[in-house]
Specification:
Blueprint (H helix, E strand, L loop, with lengths): L1 E6 L2 H12 L3 E6 L4 E3 L4 E3 L2 H8 L4 E2 L7 H9 L4 E5 L7 H4 L6 E5 L7 E2 L2 H7 L4 E8 L9 E8 L6 H22 L14 E2 L15 H10 L6 E5 L2 E11 L8 E4 L4 E4 L4 E9 L5 E2 H7 L11
Parallel strand pairs: 1-2, 1-6, 2-5, 6-7, 8-11
Antiparallel strand pairs: 3-4, 7-9, 9-10, 12-13, 13-16, 14-15, 15-16, 16-17
Length: 305
């Protein structure tokens, strides 16, 4: 088919690569403008732009899609379908109406659960046992359109946002290729029951409250790996906690109950967490044994004060 593709991060780039490999004609790729990143804050191309340029696709990076000039350029591509995946810009109704077969969105949840910006992190924070990908016919509402195809995945007990992202990106890439092969597909109108919204992650949510249960904090650590990283303080300095697992020990919340070679046991509101990978401000992510080499700790130290 003749497609326009719209997306920005790595999740989208995998879908674009799969569509190119499947032989679809993609005369135009939309992605967000280059952003400053890295230590030097130099402008960086998006993951989608890099894939598009590597395959000779024309790249268009407008700030928004509202102007008649931008919409005319999209219309000039004469695409049958627009495929959208984590693009990051709203599509006005005028753009949604351009392709004859409409705009299809690759969404990383089992709609209507977790409509919105951060479905992967919200599923982990909520302790969901499964998630998945939906191919949705886009309309003006936020992820409200009918679902054409869906696939579910179990969420492993040790899943992080990074590992779940990679699984869902691979699933989404395969699912959009399958959906395009099968068009036209019967539509599944989304249920109005059990709708949940995956609001954008706020960095303040990354601060650990050690009075919460060990299970809650474990979910928080996994949901915010790799961004923004679950945070606390220890021995007067800010740290991020990247890996942990629940432990049956008990004590006053936030108290260091044991300092072992491979782990730090910290009391939570009910049980405890065994921390296995941490990072101090300005430092690298380290396994506990390496962290302790430069940061001696003792039982009774407090986190979060």
């Amino acid at each position: 088919m003749r497609l326009i593709f719209a997306g920005t991060p790595e999740f989208s780039a995998q879908a674009l690569s799969a569509l190119i490999a499947a032989g679809h004609e993609i005369p135009l790729v939309l992605t967000q403008p280059d952003r400053p990143a890295g230590r030097g804050m130099s402008l960086q191309a998006s993951a989608v732009k890099k894939v598009a340029q590597a395959h000779g696709c024309e790249v268009f990076q407008p700030d928004n899609l509202k102007s008649p000039e931008v919409q005319a350029r999209i219309a000039a591509a004469r695409a049958e379908v627009m495929v959208v995946a984590a693009y990051g810009l709203l599509l006005p109704q005028a753009v949604l109406d351009l392709p004859p077969a409409g705009c299809l969105n690759i969404h990383a949840s089992l709609l209507p659960r977790w409509r919105g910006a951060a479905p992967i992190q919200r599923a982990l924070l909520a302790g969901d046992e499964e998630t998945g990908v939906c191919i949705m016919q886009m309309e003006a509402g936020l992820d409200t359109g009918p679902v054409l195809l869906r696939a579910s995945l179990p969420i492993d007990a040790a899943e992080t946002a990074a590992s779940l992202h990679d699984k869902l990106a691979q699933c989404g890439a395969a699912l959009i290729v399958s959906a395009l092969e099968k068009l036209p597909l019967p539509v599944e109108i989304q249920s109005t029951d059990n709708i949940t919204y995956a609001h954008k992650i706020d960095k303040n949510e990354a601060q650990i409250n050690w009075q919460n249960s060990a299970t809650q904090i474990d979910r928080q650590i996994r949901a915010f790996n790799p961004f923004p990283g679950a945070q606390s303080t220890l021995a007067g300095q800010r740290i991020k906690i990247w890996a942990a697992h629940t432990h049956p020990a008990q004590g006053p919340s936030g108290t260091l109950l044991a300092v072992e070679r491979e782990r730090l046991i910290v009391a939570c509101g009910d049980a405890a967490l065994a921390l296995t990978e941490v990072q101090k401000a300005g430092g690298k992510r380290l396994p506990v044994r390496e962290f302790l080499a430069g940061n001696p700790l003792q039982v009774g130290d407090r986190l979060g004060e």
